[in-house]
Amino acid sequence: xxxxxxxxxxxxxxxxxxxxxxxxxxxxxxxxxxxxxxxxxxxxxxxxxxxxxxxxxxxxxxxxxxxxxxxxxxxxxxxxxxxxxxxxxxxxxxxxxxxxxxxxxxxxxxxxxxxxxxxxxxxxxxxxxxxxxxxxxxxxxxxxxxxxxxxxxxxxxxxxxxxxxxxxxxxxxxxxxxxxxxxxxxxxxxxxxxxxxxxxxxxxxxxxxxxxxxxxxxxxxxxxxxxxxxxxxxxxxxxxxxxxxxxxxxxxxxxxxxxxxxxxxxxxxxxxxxxxxxxxxxxxxxxxxxxxxxxxxxxxxxxxxxxxxxxxxxxxxxxxxxxxxxxxxxxxxxxxxxxxxxxxxxxxxxxxxxxxxxxxxxxxxxxx
Length: 368
Fold this sequence. Notes:
single chain; alpha/beta; Arc Repressor Mutant, subunit A; Rossmann fold; 3 domains; eleven-stranded mixed sheet; two-stranded antiparallel ribbon; 13 strands; globular
C-alpha cells in the first residue's frame, strides 16, 4: 500500500477517506488485502487513531471493507467498489457567481457533491423544474442508484414521482420528521437550547418574545426554544409568540419590533430566522436600544457566520445547524442504504450549536 500524503487543511479527514477509497476502487489495494492497522495509518498521516477508525467505519458503511474482529480490516471482495454509481441530487444549483445567500442556501447540496466527487460515482444535478416535468429527466432517473433530496423540493407535486423511484433516497433540510418512507437527516435544535433556557430561568426577564415565520421549520425552532424555557421553570404566561405579517422578512421584523419595543421592559427575543432578526436589530438601532442591554436577542440559522450580513461585523447570537455535518451524514446514509437495501426509514438527528456574539449575555466566553 502506498503512503497517503499528509494534508494540513481542515479537509484532511475527507482527503484521507477519499484517498483510501480511491485505492480500493482502482485496485491499488487489492480485494481481500489487509489494510495497515489504524495506529500505523494514523502515525503516517499525523492524525488520531480515533479519526482513522471513523474513516474505516465509513468505508465499511459503503461496503468497501470488511472489519474482522481480532484479524483486521480487509478490502472487500465482490463489493460495490467495482460498480459505477449514479447519484442524483435534487436541490438548488449554485455557481461561483451565486450570491452569498444562494451559496448558503445551497451549502448542503454543494457539500454533498464534494463528498461524492470520487472515482466510480457520477453526480446528476436535477433542478426542481425538471422534477416538475419528469419526461425531461426520465433517462437520468432511470439510471440512478440513489438520490439526495433537499426538503424544499419535496412537496405534493414531486412526492408521488420521488416515492415511485425504486432506489434508496435520503432527504435533508427538514427540521421535522416527514411522514414518508424516505430516510432523513435533520438538524436538532433541541441540543442547543438547554443552556439558553437555564440562563433565562436564572434572570428576571419580564417578558420572553418568540418571533417566528409562518412555515414548519420556523415553528419547529420556536417550539424547541419554548419547550426548553418552560422545562427550565419559566412561567408560560410570560411567553408571547408573534408572526411577522410582512412579505419581506427583514421588513416584517422591523415593523413588528418598532411596535413591540415602544414600551420599556427587560425582555428576551427569540427569532426563528436571521432575516427577521436583521429587521429587529434595525428597529432597535432606530429606537436607541442597545444590543445586549435590557432587550436581548437570539436568532436562528447563523447566516452571518457564513458571510450573509448587512452589518460590517456579525452581531447576532444564533442557534447554528451544522450544515456540513448534515451533508456528510446524508451521503453516509445514502451509501449505507445502497449497500444494505431494506424497507426501513432511518432518521439521523444532527446536533446544533450555540454561537454567542454581542447581542446576548448568555455565556462569558463570547465569539467576537
